[in-house]
């Protein structure tokens, strides 16, 4: 049997540890002030929203304002389903919650000057236990002005289960409360106005080899009738020929946002230098938004206790649109403290 993955450099450079029962504490860093700084620095570049129009594939051009993710995921093209673990599992494949041994908190800040969109939030994930992992996140997002003005409150609870050493299952319950019109004029009977309610996601993560993993995720499986949460199915593959290098490829099939079944396709690469510095790049093709194309970049610093990561997405077709996402990460080392008092077996990469 292939051992369950320990935390390695290309997955946030933490230590893998045995289950600990020591008390855990975590703190949430409020990133609202940082959002204001980013907003003021790029406010001069804000452009007026364009009208909806038909793209080359026949779908309707819409802004790239999908749900919050992490800085690592956006830099790898937007999803990183098979390579996503820990707090990334709060927003992508929930089965990734059990992929690695970690306990940490993220503070997230997003800004998009094209439509004046900003989002702030935080997430926490504990996957140090042998069988069950769990996490919670909350994100507030808003477009304050203009024809696309809206606000949303997004809270998620994720549970992951480790089935042996190579397979993980995950489930996520999400509460979404959104106000304002949503851009889905060709959706198949979906409500486009304000909406509040619960959605349900489920995922599978398979890791047969250290160098290879794949995932499948179903989003909004209870099929709520809103453009804010259409039923979609995602899949991803991650390949790591060496521990410091990872390649990802992802696809997300959207069944209801437009007048036909369409998809989003992305890929990216991640390189770790000196086990602490991450460099990332990716590409996104989104047929649900009028064949939109975007390039992504990212960088980060991650050590055993702290991490800061930046993800940047630049859409180039059919409209220019920039999105910036900053993540500040704290690793809680309760297990390391316990090890000093009573040595246990650890694995480091």
Highlighted features:
349 residues; mainly beta; Porin; 14-stranded antiparallel barrel; globular; disordered N terminus; disordered C terminus
- CATH uppermost class: Mainly Beta
Mean pLDDT: 77
Number of helices: 3
CATH homologous superfamily descriptor: Outer membrane protein transport protein (OMPP1/FadL/TodX)
Characterization of this structure:
This protein is mostly beta strands and 349 residues long. It has a single domain, classed as Porin (Beta Barrel), CATH 2.40.160. The protein is built from three helices and 14 strands. A 14-stranded antiparallel beta barrel has the order 1-2-3-4-5-6-7-8-9-10-11-12-13-14. The radius of gyration is 19 Å and the shape is globular. The two termini are 19 Å apart. 47% of the residues are buried. The N terminus and C terminus are likely disordered.
Short summary of the structure?
This protein is mainly beta. The protein contains three helices and 14 strands.
Secondary-structure map:
Elements: H1 32-42, H2 71-75, E1 103-112, E2 117-126, E3 132-143, E4 150-163, E5 167-179, E6 195-209, E7 212-219, E8 232-242, E9 245-254, E10 262-273, E11 277-286, E12 292-302, E13 306-317, E14 321-331, H3 334-341
Antiparallel strand pairs: 1-2, 1-14, 2-3, 3-4, 4-5, 5-6, 6-7, 7-8, 8-9, 9-10, 10-11, 11-12, 12-13, 13-14
